[in-house]
Amino acid sequence: MAYVVTQSCCSDASCVVACPVNCIHPAPGEPGFAEAEMVFIDAETCVGCGACVTACPVGAIVPDTRLREDQRAFVDLAAEYYDVFPHRDRTPVALVPRQRRLRRPGPFRVAVVGAGPAGLYAADELLKHPEIDVEVFERLDVPHGLARFGVAADHVETRRVARLFEQITAQPGLRLHLGVEVGRDVTPEELETRFDAVVHATGAPADRRLGVPGDSLPGVLGATALAEWSNAHPARRDLAAELVAVDGGRAVVIGAGNVALDAARLLVGPMVGAREVLVLGRRGVDAAAFTTPELVGLVGLADPSRPDPVDVLLESGPAPVPEPFPAPGSGVRSRLLTELAQRRPAPGRPRIVLRFDSPVTEVTGGDRARGVRLADGSVVETDLVVGAIGQDWAPVAHQRGRVRPGVYVTGWAKRGPTGFLGTNKACAQETVGALLDDLDAGLGTASSPHAHPSRRVRGLLTGRNSR
Ligand SMILES: Cc1cc2nc3c(=O)[nH]c(=O)nc-3n(C[C@H](O)[C@H](O)[C@H](O)COP(=O)(O)OP(=O)(O)OC[C@H]3O[C@@H](n4cnc5c(N)ncnc54)[C@H](O)[C@@H]3O)c2cc1C
Ligand code: SF4
Ligand code: SF4
Q: Which domains does the chain have, with CATH numbers?
């Protein structure tokens, strides 16, 4: 029996370290790891010990004997990867670096702003040093950022990452302040005078606007806002009124990344009840940004054994031309797209239709969005327009996460809105490395933080907006 990595993998590489026979790749430091959509287990070498299953925070690894029919593509994906990158050396990799130790005696106190994945991975790295205490400030009343409010509700396995974050926040040495917005309830400068270092992990603020006429009409919303509504984000309750219009009707999703597919599944699902969702990609199908694992999941939606099967169709555009030197996974991707292009709709089922080479030039309608105009002049009528073209993000100048000694940045606030949940782990490790270098060098925030014990932070928050 071999084990197989499936759709929910978020590339944090925890399993790679656990494997006694070095059969999970790409590993950190190997070519392609930084961009990898997922990692792959070599079925030829896997000894079926199950160590990786325990290590995985999102339940992505299953024995091949327990794969569902719609997950079989992951076996082919792994085989394709090892055809291109055989990784013949099976010496267990000593990937666990020796634990770094601070050279200066503590105690040190670090403030982390934002309790999303990046802030919590950074806190976890910092707490490996017994000299460091961490206080995390989160503006919402609940932690975990987009891992709670962005990740799709039907990605049940991925959402299991919450258990890892709960373990991180339960560590002694970490104090979590919920309902405290830095910049409103407490200023960054106030934190800088009370802590040896401040790490900003505030993510990327909002959905990017479509940037075409009509994009601010009622009935136009962003895909992250939609995901947040479906996950009961307190600031999104009023979206329910917008969504009534699409019950039994048609929605258009603009964009062709994973978040666009999340939005499409949500819209045809029972929470919204659209009859048809048209996903419009600006460029050709071969430029679509959704990952192959997400495509595997999408293809499986039509499985008649599901309680609520959904038709998924690829409406137009030529089948992708095979590349002369195909990237690993491109054969499976091509096969799945060809399969979608050949499907015919089943009467009565809700459907998701993917259409490429279709840039949108305008959202039409007077009082609210009623359609989208495409570059060829045609208009697609719709009851709702969802923009899934990424997040706005203001870059911050930094080196390895260091904005200046004592002030750091990590996660989406540092890299922009790219990568997977696990990508924020390596990102936080880099930032914390720069922070530890500065602590060792005696560089930090300008003031003397040891004069301000923790109760002074609580005193600072008393009477302000904190809970
Ligand atoms: C819709 C959507 C779906 C996604 N689905 C997946 C998926 O299925 N799998 C996957 O691997 N990745 C997924 N991602 C990507 C993943 O969510 C991100 O990589 C990750 O959340 C980024 O972490 P972050 O901590 O940098 O930002 P965030 O998750 O945004 O966290 C930032 C935190 O900072 C807080 N904050 C902001 N400003 C302040 C302030 N001034 N004071 C205090 N607190 C503040 C915010 O409230 C938030 O809790 C998805 C992303 C989106 C948008
Ligand atoms: S089951 Fe064991 S041998 Fe197989 S990939 Fe997981 S850790 Fe490695
Ligand atoms: S999520 Fe992490 S531990 Fe799980 S399979 Fe992917 S890389 Fe391995």
A: 3-84 (3.30.70.20), 108-205+393-461 (3.40.50.720), 220-387 (3.50.50.60)
Strand spans (E) along 99-255: 108-113, 132-138, 174-178, 197-200, 220-222, 250-254
Nearest CA to ligand 1 atom 31: 116
4: left (phi over 0), alpha (psi -120 to 50) or beta: beta
d(CA 345, CA 281): 20
> What are the Cα distances from residue 226, in Å, to 40, 229, 351, 387, 393?
32, 5, 19, 10, 19
| Protein residue with least CA distance to atom 8, ligand 2 | 19
Q: Please tell me the distance between residue 14's alpha carbon and the centre of ligand 3 in angstroms.
A: 6
Question: Left, alpha or beta for 348 (phi > 0: left; psi -120 to 50: alpha)?
Answer: left
- For residue 234 and ligand 1, the question of a CB distance below 6 A is answered with no
- Determine the pLDDT at residue 252: 98
Ligand nearest the Cα of residue 14 is: 3
> What are the distances in angstroms from CA 186 to CA 113, 179, 232, 413, 461?
11, 11, 26, 19, 7
The predicted structure's pLDDT at residue 95: 58
CB 64 within 8 A of CB 1: yes
- DSSP label of 287: G
- Residue 385, ligand 2, Cβ within 6 A: no
Q: Confirm or reject: Cβ of 147 under 6 Å from ligand 1.
A: yes
Query: Cβ(424) to ligand 3 under 6 A?
Result: no
Alpha helices in 127-221 (DSSP H): 145-149, 161-169, 188-194
Atom of ligand 1 nearest to the CA of 143: 49
Q: Residues of the chain whose pLDDT is less than 70?
A: 93-97, 316-329, 445-460, 462-467
| SS3 state at 10 | coil
Instruction: Cite the beta strand spans of 240-320 per DSSP E.
Output: 250-254, 276-280, 311-314
C-alpha 270, offset from chain centre:
23
Peptide bond into 26 cis (omega under 30): yes
The CA-to-CA distance between both ends of the chain, in Å, stands at 51
For ligand 1, whether the C-beta of 290 sits within 6 Å is no
